[in-house]
């Protein structure tokens, strides 16, 4: 029982340290200034370590008092709205990949079974390994969904 408690405490401490590290990296103050020097674009970075405390304080103020993650850097919308917008696009890709994976996986299984007693059995072993090692989001049928959603045009198919 004490070993389980020690392992759980250790996992909790590691998770909290990982959370703290991610928050500090994300909230690290950085400013990029772009300027032209003849025909070259010159980038200069400036950071103020003193602003890190302000950023962390503002983040937790927004999180606990305003029930928000703050504002997005680029569009002026809240970070929660940006997450919901991006999540909808991601779910379209994930859903499409899941459907395509189910359909082609079932068809591949049927073909492997039918070809298992023939000389074409060699196709089943290495192609199964190849398709299992390829992530679903590389499936080409999902690209039209993402492309047309970005352009605010009706997609080729709904996923």
Protein model, in words:
A hairpin with a 2-residue loop joins strand 1 and strand 2. Helix content is 62%, strand content 9%. The chain starts with a helix and ends in a 9-residue tail after the last helix. The chain has a two-stranded antiparallel ribbon. The longest helix is centred in the middle third of the chain and has 37 residues. The protein is mainly alpha-helical and 159 residues long. It is extended, with a radius of gyration of 25 Å. The C terminus is likely disordered. Helix 3 packs antiparallel against helix 4 and helix 3 packs antiparallel against helix 5.
Instruction: Report the end-to-end length measured between terminal Cα atoms.
Output: 47 Å
Strand tally is: 2
Beta-strand share of residues: 5-15%
Tell me the helix content: 55-70%
What structural class do the secondary elements suggest? Answer: mainly alpha
Can you tell me the residue ranges where pLDDT is under 50 for at least 5 consecutive residues? 145-159
Mean residue pLDDT:
77
Tally of DSSP helical segments? 5
Instruction: Give me the strand/helix succession.
Output: HEEHHHH
Approximate shape: extended
Alpha-carbon Rg, integer? 25 Å
Task: Spell out the key features of this protein.
159 residues; mainly alpha; 2 strands
Write a concise synopsis of the structure shown.
This protein has 159 residues and is mainly alpha-helical.
């Amino acid at each position: 029982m004490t070993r389980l408690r020690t392992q759980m405490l250790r996992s909790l401490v590691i998770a909290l340290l990982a959370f703290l590290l991610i928050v500090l990296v994300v909230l690290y103050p950085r400013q990029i200034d772009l300027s032209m020097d003849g025909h070259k674009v010159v980038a200069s970075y400036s950071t103020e370590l003193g602003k890190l405390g302000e950023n962390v304080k503002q983040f937790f103020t927004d999180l606990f008092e305003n029930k928000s993650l703050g504002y997005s850097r680029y569009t002026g919308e809240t970070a929660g709205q940006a997450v919901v917008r991006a999540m909808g696009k991601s779910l379209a890709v994930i859903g499409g990949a899941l459907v395509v994976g189910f359909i082609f996986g079932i068809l591949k299984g049927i073909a492997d079974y039918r070809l298992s007693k023939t000389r074409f059995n060699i196709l089943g072993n290495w192609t199964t390994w190849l398709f299992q090692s390829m992530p679903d989001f590389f499936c080409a049928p999902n690209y039209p969904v993402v492309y047309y959603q970005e352009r605010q045009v009706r997609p080729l198919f709904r996923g």
